Amino acid sequence: MKRAAWGVVALALALTGCDDSGDGRVPAAEYGEVLFNDSRLSESGFNSFSCATCHATTPTAPAGRMDSGYTLYDSAFRESWWGGFETRLLDAVNFCYVNFMRGVTPLPKDSPQSRALYEYLVSISPSPSAPARPFTVVKDIVEVTRGDVTRGQQVYVEACQSCHGEPHTGAGRLTELASILPEVTNDYDTLFPGVPKSLVVIEKVRHGQFFGVGGNMPLYSLESLSDEDLGALLAFLAL
Ligand code: HEC
Ligand code: HEC
Hints:
Number of helices: 9
Structural class: mainly alpha
Bound molecules: heme C
């Protein structure tokens, strides 16, 4: 992993070194785009996420993609981030970097990486100011009404499959650390006696690694995944 990290540093030097435009902004933004798409931004050998795993960068998220995180188009000058929880952009980024990408320490303000990421986010943020995006975390886990299986399959493909791979086999999953769904729930009756399996899955989806859950999967707010779609997904997974 050390080698991968050095690769990133070397790239930083190469890209900033050939900045002869006099402006300085474009090469940094380009380097930022590379970092945005590269899981090796994080030095952790257990990380396989890049920023692009969870965030689109187009004005609206592309069809067929239901991410836990918002598109970062026009994100640089939002009034606040993470539903008002973060008031500095770098803190909003570092929240993801540390919690989801297993970054060991937050990216320092003056590091080439954070500066380049900043320039990249600015380059995809044409509006000088943008409203904060709503972010509603479901605190208390309760059952949801089961929905349509066909819709549930679509939700699985768009929201879960990029990381977890195909249902039942995990084929094509991003990392072997992402459990096979729904088979991982086979143990839940032993692990969580008396708790319906579906509630454990709802807890994971709504809280990710927070509220004492653990791991590095992101959490899904009500805005990123409605209860209706979650109910359809559970029906598809036969939970
Ligand atoms: C595993 C998924 C995941 C990864 C990887 C990830 N994020 Fe996030 N990010 C989220 C979630 C979930 C939120 C909260 C919902 C939201 O605000 O977009 C979030 C929020 C944000 C926000 C605040 C957006 C807002 O308006 O509230 C920024 C900025 C951000 N992420 C940038 C990044 C950057 C840059 C990277 C790479 C260094 C990154 N994220 C990696 C999932 C992720
Ligand atoms: C950004 C990648 C990513 C996405 C998207 C994602 N997951 Fe995960 N998920 C993981 C990883 C990695 C783990 C194992 C680490 C952990 O527990 O956080 C995991 C673990 C889980 C577990 C817990 C397995 C256990 O150990 O008991 C469940 C349940 C789960 N995911 C369901 C889902 C569902 C349902 C979706 C879609 C709504 C989804 N995940 C979307 C990456 C992801």
